[in-house]
Amino acid sequence: EKDNYQHHDTQLGGAGDRTGNPRMYSFMHWINSSMATSFLCSLQEELDIRPKVSSFLSRLVNYTNITQGAREHEEEESANVSRKKAPKAPNMGTLMGVYLPCLQNIFGVILFLRLTWIVGTAGIAQSLIIVFMCCSCTMLTAISMSAIATNGVVPAGGAYFMISRSLGPEFGGAVGLCFYLGTTFAAAMYILGAIEIFLKYLLPQAAIFHASGPHGGDSAMLNNMRVYGTLCLSLMALVVFVGVKYVNKLASLFLACVIISIFSIYAGAIKSITHPPEFTVCMLGNRTLERDLFDVCSKTVVVGNETVPSQLWRSFCPEGNVSSAQCDDYFSQNNLTEIPAIPGLASGIISDNMWGDYMQKNDVMEKAGLSSVDAKGPAESIGMYVTADIATSFTLLVGIFFPSATGIMAGSNRSGDLRDAQKSIPVGTILAITTTSLVYFSSVVLFGACIEGVVLRDKFGDAVNKNLVVGTLSWPSPWVIVIGSFFSTVGAGLQSLTGAPRLLQAIAKDNIIPFLRVFGHGKANGEPTWALLLTGVIAELGILIASLDMVAPILSMFFLMCYLFVNLACAVQTLLRTPNWRPRFKYYHWALSFLGMIMCVALMFISSWYYAIVAMGIAGLIYKYIEYQGAEKEWGDGIRGLSLSAARYALLRLEVGPPHTKNWRPQLLVLLKMDEDLHVKYPRLLTFASQLKAGKGLTIVGSVIQGNFLESYGETQASEQAIKNMMEIERVKGFCQVVVASKVRDGIAHLIQSCGLGGMKHNTVVMGWPYGWRQSEDPRAWKTFINTVRCTTAAHLALMVPKNVSFYPSNHERFSDGNIDVWWIVHDGGMLMLLPFLLKQHKVWRKCNMRIFTVAQMDDNSIQMKKDLATFLYQLRIEAEVEVVEMHDSDISAYTYERTLMMEQRSQMLRQMRLSSAERDREVSSGRSFTFYMVLGDIATFQTSSLLILCCPVKAQLVKDRHSLVRMGSLYSDEEEEVLESPTEKVHMTWTKEKCEAERRNHTNAPENFRELISLKPDQSNVRRMHTAVKLNEVIVNRSHDARLVLLNMPGPPRDTGGDENYMEFLEVLTEGLERVLLVRGGGREVITIYS
Questions:
Q1: Residue spans of alpha helices (H) in 297-420
Q2: What pTM value is reported for the model?
Q3: Residue 1060's beta-bridge partner residues?
Q4: 700 φ/ψ angles, rounded to the nearest 5 degrees
Q5: Whole-angstrom Cα distance, residue 685 to residue 801?
Q6: Which GO biological process entries does UniProt record here (predicted)?
Q7: DSSP code of residue 190
Q8: I want to staple 328 with a disulfide (CB 3.0 to 4.6 A). Which of 377, 390, 603, 1040 is the partner?
Q9: Distance between CA 505 and CA 180 in Å, rounded?
């Protein structure tokens, strides 16, 4: 069996002997390889346009988050793949990538320079409330941000990317710019903090401006801050411009300074339990004195054996000696005492600092527990006391403290450098907020439990000899805090100046704000040079303010705006439950996001209501600018989903019933005709629609393309785009719908039936007049027009037909005078009254006067009609002139008779020309080559058709191309159209002698038909209708020949389709001699009411 198996395998060219039959082996190899991919054969067409799963997953895994503006990003989109550098793989974890950067950004200048002052002013209890409000707001925002950041891959761009992709380009641009302005003003705040530390505590001698009087110290300090702040800003901007890598390398050093400073505070607080620092405060009565203005806290000093006035005495008693009485009354009646500035953690001072002590500007710092005799001293002595530099309140302190809680976006801003952003951002950010919140809470308690109240309220440390207040508590030396806080503020300022230009560059590169495009460019390596320049200019505005306490609320507003929209984005996405909303971070809820939104708004108005209004106004202006002028972006954002849900809810509510008469307005379906180049043939129809609507209500612009949908899809797209462009030019706000149908009138019927959705459906159709219908051999134009009139009547829709629409005014024209004349002959539900009123809302027609004419017959009381009509218009609140035109019965004129005769003769002639259209069609179909060659004169080719040529001589009217024959023979009925749509079908005819005789008789009868046409007498009903049209036209032309627009009732088409052509003639006669006419046909319901 083994031998047989091997023999069999060898015969098949198998593995037993592959060299035995190489042809068979190659054949089997081809079969096997084909079988391996045979399961993809059925999807071959799909694979030509779509990637395989394996290649798709490969590209997805190799996706990298590349910093926007970097050179790698430009090379990522470059076509030159060979020169593309492989971007460095992100390798940062939670600690280095998110936690520590957030700590560095959250801890800042407020902790070291203002937190002690906040605790002393507001008290421990209210300070804890302030810290709780701010930290709760940032924690709720961090939860929302974590949900957004873990909902898919977050490229570089941080908060701006998340908000813009969640709330759309309008909100994204507005909030992105607010975030940018907040970061820029944060740079100014950090620089001001660094300069304050430098001039107050490091090198006071460097001050350029000095106080010129007791109240001149503040202005001198502000000027010093402006000068040194500008110099510092310029130096920092130069460092950022030269290289960001130096800033990033120094970031660790700055963070170390912050951490060491904080630990020194805790160490000093613990040491104060047993060995409090030896800082004292000199008190005059219960008032605090500036310690650097004198040497000894005493009124007299003993020099040798003699008691002499001290330096403090000479300050309060400028003249005289110890025995004289020319001193400040308060100084004379109160004693000097020294109290410890840092009583220590075990002193029980916490009870005195529990409640706040808000002060007005220039109020003296007083200690409540010390005895004092109240006496008024001279104004010159006020400079000896420690006073409040600004008026304080709870709301002011909230605005000043909030920047110390910001910086939570540092992790999301570095998402491009994280190894696993979806894991690191939530954990690192929430952990950093928790850490900083604990530090703030504990610092508030420690400051209140260790430091004297008057020292806490002393913002600049004047009572402790110009030392930084928090530095007096630190261990081992106040210089640890001073130097550490200086470097930390400088580092934070550099980080802000580095991040803000990149954020602006990201916004500019998204191209949603046109005037920011220039800031998307930079140096060759992608550094945002122009954005850095603008950032420096805006930061300089903050430097010129020169007050840390005034700049802090400004950036609080911008950051709160950003946090507000982060919470809004999370809440909207959660409530909409969009399919793409699948965050990995599960500990979120829409209620928490709404609570965060409420807290953001509350903090904005608590901090500064006028700054809040300004910030919201800036965001609103940017939003509207992007909405009207910005580039269109579709990012699948939540606002569009929210709009969809709101639209769905509103549409379901509208389904309850038709709108009330008071709410009725024309919802237009504008039927446009396209030319051969797929351009709008009559764009003034859209102009008229925009003037009528004035941006209100529904407008649907529809068009029909004749053909097959599968073959005409490209034409449909081109037509839609052409219509949308024209709608944008004519400022028509609405929708566009183009349908493909085998017959134009069927397409129009489909549009009339199916346009709109639910309660948002059209109630009025606007269509153009079929110009040149008399001259055209093709009756389809006017037949389609009449069919559309019948369709609108059957659907109970109103109809408007602007005649001579090319003469209608454009949106740029203005009528300074003139009349809009309404000829109200038949009551149509009030359409004729309402339309002029709506037109007059537009600037083109605003200055036109409205005149209403109605027709009175013999048995009508014209005087009473005029009074009734005036009363009716008064109740409608419509201002218009009223005129009643009397029309008497008169004899039918010869002109009317001749006009009717001409109309009927034309109809009869066309009917006879179309009488035998079916036979001619068959002749054209079967003898097409005969006709063609006969025109060329090649009769010899058709020897077999000589009998037909002899028996049936071809008339001259038939020597036309086949397209003319088809058009002339078309009755535009369904049966004939079906014949005409398939002209390639061959009809085999057998010509016999009887058929030739019949054809000869038909041609012999032609003169008789002509004589019958000449002797035709018009129908009496047509004569009466023509008489009415002629007389009414005479009256209208007589009264309204100079009117800007004439509106009149449009008569309905006849029930018998045989009189359609006569109907068109009646309309022509009715509107003859008028420049602009609007034919109006009501929809069968009241559209205007006298009731409120």
A1: 311-316, 329-333, 394-401, 410-413
A2: 0.69
A3: none
A4: -120, 125
A5: 9
A6: cell volume homeostasis; chemical synaptic transmission; chloride ion homeostasis; potassium ion homeostasis; potassium ion import across plasma membrane
A7: H
A8: 377
A9: 10
